[in-house]
Design a protein that fits this description.
Layout (H helix, E strand, L loop, with lengths): L2 H5 L7 E4 L3 H12 L4 E4 L7 H6 L7 E2 L3 H6 L6 H9 L2 H10 L4 E3 L4 E4 L5 H14 L2 E3 L3 E5 L5 E5 L2 E5 L4 E3 L16 H6 L4 E7 L3 E2 L13 E9 L2 E9 L3 E3 L1 H5 L1 H11 L2 E6 L6 H10 L6 H9 L3 H14 L6 H9 L1 E5 L1 E2 L7 E6 L16 E3 L13 H22 L1
Parallel strand pairs: 1-2, 1-10, 2-6, 10-20
Antiparallel strand pairs: 3-5, 4-5, 7-8, 8-9, 11-19, 12-15, 12-18, 13-14, 13-16, 14-15, 16-17
Helix pairs in contact: 2-15, 5-15, 11-12, 11-14
């Protein structure tokens, strides 16, 4: 053990963390604060790469809504995860940021951001503090599993090495944005233990739609102030038209509902409400009263007050349904409920997060894998899902802390 750890009064028994994202780093800090030495292993050349990507457009750390409502964002999540969030709620994250010299603010949507907006100042301050507390980091170490004797196997630039067994936390992320470090390769060795794993799928991701060539001219344009409906599910916000389909906040919010529909039927359909504030009968009336010398497209655009991107979607749906110009009621209803057939999600390589993962049923109250004592799990690699809005990072921070506390309880016993 490095001399510096002994000088800080830490015990000689190390804890091992594999994964240098938010969950792993929060677990490391929790253990270090308890006076335990920590060695952290990361496959990439630096820590927190996906964390930095998350902050590229403004780091949304958590959300200011009432905690009881906040917890509903995780759907049918394990009580273990919900209890972890209750124990380390949004206010605790704000205080943690404040202690790092990174004050936060609540945006107009209720989302919480650091005042610097970016992830890099927060990450730099965090890593400096972890280094001062004695964290030992091993970069470019890709975890491969265990030897027959139970030692940890790592692939490094110098070749494969083994590390003696010790209390170990896996915080290896899901499989989204694999070039940033989390590629889901942990499913092999963990699954070999017999731990149940729900297949990893894209979440908070763009969707694939078989647009006609007419839609190419509006690719990259936004659909503003729309509502998406899938069965009982409804969400409002904005989306972006892409050559492959649609992406953006309101589409990400619909991920879980779309995933259920795709799993059930193989295909799915969502209704786009292009003017939630207009009644269909009012649109139909304005169509009938429109200037006869105007083209049908012009009359429709003026009657519904649609921007070019929304008009392109409307015409796309009208062509597919075979609606004739002049059918006022049908086109008015289409403005409020344009059916969009969804073929599936875009790939994990650009999904914001991952659904599926290691089952909570295989963990005990200390977040330890029941089939391998001394092994603990945290973060996005576990089987939970949440929309964007701060809920993803909140669960990673909270689960990392909870799993570290579980490691301390387990080893104390």
């Amino acid at each position: 053990m490095p001399r510096g750890l002994q000088d800080r009064g830490m015990t000689s028994d190390p804890f091992l963390i594999i994964g240098g994202g938010p969950a792993g780093l929060m677990a490391a800090e929790t253990l270090l604060d308890a006076g335990r030495p920590v060695h952290l292993y990361e496959r990439m050349p630096s820590l927190g790469r996906k964390f930095l990507m998350a902050g590229r457009g403004g780091l949304n750390l958590t959300h200011a809504e009432d905690l009881s409502r906040f917890l509903t964002r995780y759907g049918e999540a394990s009580p273990l995860l919900l209890e972890a969030i209750r124990a380390f709620p949004p206010d605790a994250i704000r205080q943690w940021c404040e202690d790092l010299g990174q004050p936060t603010f609540v945006g107009s949507s209720g989302r919480i951001f650091p005042e610097a907006m970016k992830a890099s100042p927060l990450l730099r301050a965090w890593l400096r503090r972890l280094e001062a507390k004695g964290l030992v980091v091993h970069l470019r170490h890709r975890w491969l599993g265990w030897t027959e004797a139970g030692a940890l196997r790592f692939e490094t630039p110098e070749g494969e090495i083994t590390v003696a067994a010790a209390p170990t936390l896996l915080a290896l992320g899901g499989a989204s944005w694999p070039r940033l470090g989390a590629d889901g390769s942990w499913t092999g060795p963990l699954g070999a233990l017999g731990h149940a794993i729900t297949p990893l799928e894209p979440s908070n991701a763009g969707i694939r739609i078989a647009w006609s060539p007419f839609m190419a001219k509006v690719a990259g344009q936004p659909l503003k102030r729309i509502t998406v409906r899938i069965g009982w599910f409804e969400a409002s916000g904005e989306a972006m038209i892409t050559r492959q389909g649609l992406e953006g906040g309101v589409i990400y919010a619909a991920s879980a509902a779309l995933r259920r529909a795709l799993a059930r039927n193989g295909t799915a359909s969502l209704d786009l409400d292009l003017r939630p504030d207009f009644r269909p009968e009012w649109i139909a009336h304005r169509l009938r009263e429109g200037r006869s010398k105007d083209s049908w497209t012009s009359r429709l655009r003026k009657a519904a007050g649609l921007q070019p991107a929304a008009m392109a979607v409307l015409n796309e749906c009208g062509r597919r349904l075979g609606l004739a110009p002049g059918d006022h009621e049908a086109w008015a209803n289409l403005v409020r409920a344009a059916p969009i057939p969804v073929e599936g999600f875009c790939g994990l390589d650009r999904a914001i997060s991952t659904a599926g993962g290691a089952a909570f049923d295989g963990l005990d109250a200390n977040w330890m894998v029941t089939q391998r004592p001394g092994l603990f799990l945290a973060g996005e690699m576990l089987d939970w899902d949440a929309p964007t809005g701060g809920y993803l990072l909140q669960a990673c921070f909270a689960s990392g802390r909870a799993a570290a506390l579980g490691m301390l309880r387990q080893t104390a016993g």
